[in-house]
Amino acid sequence: MDEHVDAWFAREILVHEDALLRYLRRCWAHADDIHDLRQEAYVRVYEAARRERPHQPKSFLFTTARHLMADRLRRGRIVSIEAVGDFESLNVPVDEAGPERRHDARQSLRRLAEAFDRLPDRCREVVWLRKVDELPQKEVARRLGVAEKTVEKQVAKGARLIADYMFGEAGVPRGKQRAQRQRGQDDGQEHG
Known about the structure:
Low-confidence stretches: 79-87, 89-94
GO biological process, one term: DNA-templated transcription initiation
Largest sheet: none
Protein name: RNA polymerase sigma factor
Order of helices and strands: HHHHHHHHHH
Family: Belongs to the sigma-70 factor family. ECF subfamily.
Domain RNA polymerase sigma-70 region: 16-76
Number of helices: 10
Shape: globular
CATH topology of the domain at 1-78: Rna Polymerase Sigma Factor, Chain: A
Radius of gyration: 22 Å
Domain RNA polymerase sigma factor 70 region 4 type: 110-158
């Protein structure tokens, strides 16, 4: 154990325990998970501090806790998506969709999850709160401590990036596709 990290952790992180618990109780609906979330946040902060001390320890702690909650929500949603695939093993008639259609739907969901995971952290968090949790823009702004205009811009940016990923060629964003096509045309003009 690094005694310097232990002292730093006690001085800069543990003093915020009451505030952290209030924050987790306010943001997380499952009271049984609160202590696990707190503990996981502490572990992540401690491990990060062993490599490099954060400049703003309190902010780092709360950001870590927020990311943990977002990760848990996302994993919970992914599990529910995967559960759809278990209908076949339950021998329950699902609908008229054939196996190819179900396969295509699963591929689309996986691609959407990949696109979502590629979003910048802040953008992903805003899009999740607005489009998945369906929180009003004002509430998202309040929770994240940003202006409503910032929320609006992040949602637009996230939608554009997801669309680029979903409908681009083999995962290449549309902007890069245009640049590649333009380069191809330029090369054709030079050689033709």
